[in-house]
Amino acid sequence: MRGAVLYAPGDVRFEERDEPQILKPTDAVIRTVATCVCGSDLWNYRGINPTDQPTPFGHEYVGVVEEVGDEVRAIRPGQFVVGSFFASDNTCPNCRNGYQTNCLHREFVGAGGCQAERIRIPLADGTLVATPEPPSADLVPSLLACSDVMGTGWYAAAAAHVQPGDTVAVVGDGAVGLCAVIAAKQMGAERIIAMSRHASRQSLAREFGATDIVAERGEDGAARIKEMTGGIGADRVLECVGDANSMRQALRSARPGGNVGFVGVPHGVEIEGTELFYSHVGLRGGPAPVRQYLPRLIDLVLAGAINPGKVFDLHLPLSQVAEGYRAMDERRAIKALLTP
Amino acid sequence: MRGAVLYAPGDVRFEERDEPQILKPTDAVIRTVATCVCGSDLWNYRGINPTDQPTPFGHEYVGVVEEVGDEVRAIRPGQFVVGSFFASDNTCPNCRNGYQTNCLHREFVGAGGCQAERIRIPLADGTLVATPEPPSADLVPSLLACSDVMGTGWYAAAAAHVQPGDTVAVVGDGAVGLCAVIAAKQMGAERIIAMSRHASRQSLAREFGATDIVAERGEDGAARIKEMTGGIGADRVLECVGDANSMRQALRSARPGGNVGFVGVPHGVEIEGTELFYSHVGLRGGPAPVRQYLPRLIDLVLAGAINPGKVFDLHLPLSQVAEGYRAMDERRAIKALLTP
To answer: Where's the Enoyl reductase (ER) domain (chains A, B) (predicted)?
Structure first.
């Protein structure tokens, strides 16, 4: 089978790779229906994270189950499934607490490279969620979004304790930030301020439920949020970028007693204890426990209540995966969907 | 009147100072019934925080109202009152959100020096809470504790979202840490692990509700907590020290999805974004909004449900305030109570 391999910064190749196999009795192998490029893949594509050797890439996927190991019970061949980027047993104490991405037996599904025609899924029963029946083609992008960006946007809002009536600011207008707007809306936020300076992203943010747009960044952005909230800051701020500036902007945009949920994988982020202390801001982040949210998110997609698939503004054949990376790197696309 | 003045590290003097006055129509002046030395005063006493000029000291107090300004409505001369170390109007948006120590009009009551015979209290209506009647002498230490350490321990537990049934670890066995044990117990924690290596403090922690004692510190302490909690960590951790080691110990003692409430004033604390991210731990700290909790805490004290005054293991006349600092600095005393 064929799949994407990152050789070096800017060098993604689509090439023949080993066929994935059932290695453990709890594994499944799926035939990929759709996969995509993640904003976090760009850290490597841009050389900010090192790439020491040719590395299979991608960690988002929906597909049809082809084969399962002897101990797999809930998942069956033929099912259409959505899964999380971290495999989890869904039974350990951390999973039961709702933090499947901290499962005591977690494995990174992306280690095998999901931008490929077929994928090995460890701990299939605890990782995959099947749809009641095969979805129509138009729902596939939104179901794919649930496997990471929509789940991650949801966690940003959940980690920040978004409540009905809240004023929520979203830092970052990438696919995750836009999905965080959907999540805030679903959780009942009254005012949703998208921080964005790109017309097309502003427009999608509004379509997803943003009530206000703030184009300013950094200190100016935080000052603008305070100005809009009676001088105190937003109740909840969703940090969807992951660098030192965006984190500072997020923390300074939240009111005393407010919360920041941070889901951008941190790069160079240090939080100064004294500033955090006097801010009274609550902070929680991490890799989103997508598996916790999948049943609900799939229901919302199938009911037509949310349509996060709109973040895919570029659809390409999987063979053109390199163009997907380029388009996102150059910010010509929000997010590239790839179909084998 | 006379009061404490810090001249330099280790040099606290009890001397004649100006009589406090009503400076604004929202002020009150109280006659001090009891005051005390705070762990945070030691940062200055030890020279870790600089002292540039002779500085009146202390920020914890209970007293009897002597005089009020023209705009004071709820507070009346003759009342016995407990107040917070930050004066607050109790009406601004931050106060209404329960964060009175971030009041838009806050003033640090300690700026005037509360280790004194009389104290000016700004924003008296929003800062002070009167008891229904003058308390008996034996209740005075516990009411005094409410003005800071008990309120701060309560906030540590509230900021960490302690829930009934939780396992809670407390880092720090000073007066605040011990009061945090009381708070965790009141909030229904099932297991309370006090991290302490001093016999007398361990014993008071047990009396306040600790079910377990862990003497190990740092990495060893965190490892011990994980060992005691099925390998995952405590549901909630209350950080009551404020240095880099104690914060690290606290963060590493909490389970994924757990919380750290931090109330030790940070000194040299930097939180690494990547570690916080992958930990899934929620974090909130700050100067405790004591004013929010005072009505409830006073009720609990008057009902005999809590007895935080036991943290005062040294009672001295106010004139011997220097000895109070010395005894706490040398850890001969947990906390020194001073009466004029």
So the answer is: 10-338
